[in-house]
Design goal:
The complex is a heterodimer.
Chain A: E1 5-7, E2 10-13, E3 19-24, E4 31-38, E5 42-50, E6 53-57, E7 64-68, E8 74-78, E9 87-94, E10 105-106, E11 110-114
Chain B: E1 3-6, E2 11-14, E3 19-21, E4 23-26, E5 32-38, E6 44-50, E7 56-59, E8 62-65, E9 75-77, E10 86-93, E11 103-104, E12 108-113
Parallel strand pairs in B: 2-12
Antiparallel strand pairs in B: 1-4, 3-9, 5-6, 5-10, 7-8, 8-9, 10-11, 10-12
The chains are: A mainly beta, B mainly beta.
Chain lengths: 115, 114
């Protein structure tokens, strides 16, 4: 069974631009969560989508947004990029979102560098 | 809000030494607790979990017990190997409809020398 895939793996952008990252969950998984990993702040939860609806949201500004499609694939968008947005963005999928525990499986991440 | 505090690293040990990485948490209700591991150049992997008080999670020789009275979930291994060198993260989910939200500790870098 294929794991969680994220594209692209590496991305370089300049301040003020916007970026879209993509995540394909494990087949059959309906919940997708996004995290930001930086040396200073560690791993921080961005948001979670389940059945095309945002179920949980972290403490990030509105420049960070996401969506989920009917096939469970998810995208996250960051608008008006800032230097501080440089990070590894991780996506995780699980079988069911909310109401019961299911292991989250993580993708390899997208490394975003903002110049 | 929920939070997880891990002992600061890095931790450097010799092979076959005993490992303890401390983890304490703050959460309302009854969270589920996890240890994740990130090997060099690889993604995050679940190492072990415990979903209720007094549960012991175990995997690959690692163990951790969910202690509600001390709000702790310390990771232990009796004899570490070079291959255990990695970054270890303690994490929790609050449960209910928030199982998709993991709150992580800062991570502890473990280096094991032959």
């Amino acid at each position: 069974k294929a794991g969680v895939t994220q594209t692209p793996r590496y991305l370089i952008k300049t301040r003020g631009q916007q970026v879209t990252l993509s995540c394909s969950p494990i087949s059959g998984h309906r919940s997708v969560s996004w995290y930001q990993q930086t040396p200073g702040q560690g791993l921080q939860f961005l948001f979670e989508y389940f059945s095309e609806t945002q179920r949980n949201k972290g403490n990030f500004p509105g420049r960070f947004s996401g969506r989920q499609f009917s096939n469970s694939r998810s995208e996250m968008n960051v608008s008006t990029l800032e230097l501080g947005d440089s990070a590894l963005y991780l996506c995780a999928s699980s079988l069911v979102g909310g109401g019961s525990y299911n292991e989250q499986f993580f993708g390899p991440g997208t490394r975003l560098t903002v110049l | 809000g929920d939070s997880v505090t891990q002992m600061e690293g890095p931790v450097t040990l010799s092979e076959e030494a005993f490992l303890t990485i401390n983890c304490t948490y703050t959460a309302t209700g009854y969270p589920s607790l996890f240890w994740y591991v990130q090997y060099p150049g690889e993604g995050l992997q679940l190492l072990l979990k415990a979903t209720k008080a007094d549960d012991k999670g175990s995997n690959k020789g690692f163990e951790a017990t969910y202690r509600k009275e001390t709000t702790s979930f310390h990771l232990e291994k009796g004899s570490v190997q070079v291959s255990d060198s990695a970054v270890y993260f303690c994490a929790l989910t609050p449960g209910g409809t928030s199982y998709g939200k993991l709150t992580f500790g800062q991570g502890t870098i473990l280096t094991v020398h032959p």
